[in-house]
Amino acid sequence: MVKAPTNFQPIDVRKGKQQTPAPVRSRYRKFDIYRDVQQFYHVDDHAIQVAQTDHENFVDLIFHLVYSQNYQSDLEKARAIFRWMTSKNMYTIKFKGKVNSGSPEEVILSFQNKQGTYARIFETLCRFSGLQCTVLTGFAKGLDYRPGDKFKGSEYNHSWNAILIDGQWYLVDSHWATRYLVSEKNQPENLVYEYDDFYFLTDPEQLIYSHWAHKSEWQLLSRPISLQDFENLPLVKSYFFKCGMFFISHHNGVVQTKKGRVALTLGFSKPTNFTYKIVFTSNNEEMHQGQKLKSYALQHQGKNQTTTFIFRAPKSGQYYFTIFAQLLTGELGVKNVFTASAEYKVIADATSPDAVALPNCSDSSWGAGIAVDQIGLVATPTDGIITSSNGKVNIEFKKTRPAFILSKLRKNGMREEDLEQCISEQDLGDRIVVTANLPQQGEYGIEVYGNDPAKDGETYTHISQYYVHFAPQAEQMKAFYQESPERRHLSPQQQAELEGGFKPDSAGLSNATQAMNLGGNQGYNQDDDLPPPPPELLQQQYLYGALPDGSGQAVMNNLAFTQGKGQPTTYAPGTGEAVSVQQQKANVANIPATSSPYKVEKRSVGQQPPAVPSNFQLVPVRNEKSSTPPPVPTSSSQVKPNLDAIDKQVLKSVDDHAIQVSKSDHNSFRDLVWDLIYSKNITNEIEKVRVIFRWLATKNLKEMNFDHIQAGSPEEVLMGLKTGKTTYAMVFDTMCNYAGLHSKIISGYAKGADYHPGMKFQPGSNQHSWNAVYIYGTWCLIDAHWAARRIIGKQAQTNVSEEFHYQLDEYFFLPDPHQLIYTHFPDENKWQLLEIPITLEEFENLPHMKPQFFKYQLEFVTHRTAVIYSRGEINIRLRYSAQKLAVTFNFTICFENGEEEYRGVKLNRYGMQESVGSIASFRLRLPIKGSYILYIYAKEDTPENKENVYAQVCEYKIVQEDSANPAPEPFPPCSYLNWGPGPSFNRYGLTTYQQTACIFTRDGKAEVQIKIPHQMQFMGKVKSNNHSDGDLEGYVVHRVVGNTAFFNVTAPQRGEYGLEIYANDPVKEGTTLYHVAQYVIVCNEDVKTTPLPKLPPGYLGPQSKFTEFGLSTASHHDPIIHLDTNTVTIQIRSEAPLRVTGNLLAVQDDSSEVEHPEFIFAHTMGSLITFIVNLPHTGFYKLQLYACPVNDSSQQLPGVYNYLINCRDVKQAVFPFPKQYAQWKEGCFMYEPGVIASTTGPNGQKISRDRLPPQVNFRLMIPKADAVAVVAGDDWTHLEKLQGSEWGGVIDVEKHYGKNTKITVNANYGGDKTSYATLLEYTV
What we know:
The chain is of the alpha+beta class. The protein contains 27 helices and 71 strands. The longest helix is centred in the middle third of the chain and has 15 residues, at 648-662.
């Protein structure tokens, strides 16, 4: 038992002075915070162990759970509490001694007598862990709720929590996370207690379907919904969102049919199968007149990842329509089942006029679903509903790899055998066509069964089915399936409008402000009972990080966003909240536009400037009677003057003019100002500021001279830069003053070249000055010095000038005050220009961000302080706009003293970077206690930006307060610090379902599947800190099957391994392979695994001549074959006559190989070449196939295909095949005997001689032979010619057993009738 130190006393966060932020929806979705619960592996494991421990009091409990681990992040604390609560039996918890009234112990124990709640316990644990948390009460759709039920009274039936993590509110329901309903039956006896991660940091747009907070602001929606709206939403289970499902047609839980029919359409963004159940609401009965109610509904897959359920009610009345889903994860060892996901109440107004049971087929889903794709077929049509007015139906399946199908015709009331003659399949090589001639009008079902010869043997599996309606067109147009959105030619969103979903007002949906005004009768018909759901409920498909495909974008464009929600959000210091990132186009009404570019004359260096008119006078703006306007904070949503207010061609001419002016030397400041501004009559204030800024950034001020310099003159200010008496800010201010612009010199602290995170600012150090300039009524900021003298690279650690590199940095021209505050802190708070100024302490704690951070529109998802304190692993996350920019990241780690290695290992190896969706994560596990610096870099990765180098975007100081025991190991020694798919992955057009770079083994094995657009070459490497590359060669194997490349890794033992994947396009790139991806394979299991034999890259599968010779696999398309027996038949097809042979090599334990050509037999029938392989013992075998065209005179047979066979069991004794001579390999075929058993050889001792047959039948096909004879010793037996090229006969072999007699098959091909060529040779 862990006890708290005697001086430990947790502080109740409510007793602090910290102000609780208002309830506002977090700017981050759950998937931004984490995508894989494995991220919390160590936190969860600790919490579960604590839950298995009893504690004497609350202090010991909270210390053990939270403080003993020294969790630094709010997220880790919240997670530990959540997992403790979902693991602890609250009915058995107890404390020692007396429990005081109002104590935390009393709160926790109160649950046992039904006086307390999970929410109150969760809130108590959070309070004493330094987390702000509140209890929310309201109504929840629990076990006994069914669609259409009404909540009565004001006694709320449930409570849950809102918790503040990193300044953002999130929703948590630890009770429902523990009480997870597996069965669809909403009855207590079906309740299964199981942890459900869905209820941790649940998105408000998802939780609102089941949880309604009576305090509307705690719904955390931009537009809260009423109780009536909540009651009317469909009943949704957590699995609905796990599958990425969302409602399209009906957002109401109660649905009315029209003439007994209704079509319910859902979308989904992850590979999912569906089924459903229908019962009467009155008695839960699912039968009607001997038929399941389910048979009165048709489910079919639609376009753009949608599925539709069309119901034709057999009678008027009320039904519950429950939808089940099955997420197809593709994970090894995961067995998926259908799980209840959503439920409607359907009120049928009448019996549907065509209400009959659907044809009795095997499945509930109609159409070409995922199973068709998995077998490598492409179906036409894809729609599950086929109509015919003449009784003829054709369905085509295009092959992407070899496959076979069978089809069955079904019709209620007709026998299967009578229908069998009405349907057929025709295999046309590259496609299979199913043809049906329907005997009479009516409704039919066509079932299609598929066979993947690579793995299915003789088994055929149901892969699709089609509903066929044979009727006149007029009858078809009245049929129930016309309710389908595809049949009605409607987009899903149009269907939503017709079915009572969201309806925009007449102003259109492009105006986000209009979307706020959806109250009253706007946005829905006055005849409707309820207003539409809030826009968030229509955007469920966008809660999962990615659109299903590009076609979905149109739906998004038609959605109304509430104000400020239609734009990306970012954190802005000085506002205290998330704010919208404004679009770049300025819209300041009082900025005049220059109509045409300025005419610019090109100059040479040192060229004389134009003469100044004698009557031109400099008039400083501060000498006039008008006073300088006071600084006014600008709101983060306010559009400020920026370069987008200037025409691009005008801007280019302004910049060019400034550059040309910088080439000339001016006698006086008056001459300079005339030349720069007034000679071109520049009156636009932004253009004035710009031309001064651009001239300052271009001119070498240290080489500038004036004829006369008087004390206090502008010339003295400019010349002062040479001696350091003045600053860029003073020069800029002076030039603005004489250009008619109000400006201000701002002094303060700046995080410059010598700054490092955690530094405290003291008077006299890190002093800097910059400017504010007044442009068309708005104070704007500018730093001409940093713009002209940008430092590239890491922080300066020396005074040597070579460490500095300079170039213009546009960021410091009119930067947003909410961004500049990260690096510039004015002495006067008012010049922060923020609504809520920050303190110096807050400035010191802000992360050190560089201009590129804002260029790439990055945001902090976690860790918003300059210094991070850690006792374990750290995961820093940034968000970027993946839809707008292709950004790649990198990082470096060093000790605070600059050292970059620990015990000879680069510290970078203790970190990994991964980008998933729009989140870049940096996972660090630092080796020892101490202070580190983390530099994060980014660059835009586009084809036109190939030369673009990484630029630093931010840096952290990390204080590792404790060292783990044992010390953490570096990540596996792979080529890059970036894990997951790399830039070349997308360049080759590759895709994968693997969402994260970390893959956890099951039974020591892991698999990565990559979809490929065309034939490519691949190679896989396994890397480890504890094994050499050579030792690991046998632990990864890859092969290409159809359009998918498979990489299988076997972990030799517990630990971490790196999987590097290389690829190329052999047509364009020859034999050089390029790095495309790398993954971390984590094995947390104690396993005994057998490595695969070491194979050279590209060994498995088709070789270069395979396609050239017109070959294709006919049986085993996967080059890795696992057998639970010791014989296998493999077939390939050829387009032209070939000479073929094969070799079998048994791989020994020491990696040596033993050839067994006698256990492989090849023969040919037409275009089908068959290899029969017998395996004498268990183990791995390499099967190498060779071929060449018959007319090839070289007699060289190159390798065309290689298999790896794993024989796991010997089920029968096997004997050597006959030796095959050259002419046998030219199209001959053996029907029997194959082998002749013998008492000699490897299995001879297993055979009793008296069981051997005295005679053996021979039946062979030998093209072009005139005569065939079998010779046993000296005995000749001529075979009879049967039909075609077949020969047969019976041979006496009894007297030859045990004598090593040669039995040969010989053929005469004409000419000398005594000349026979030997084709086969047996030894008995």
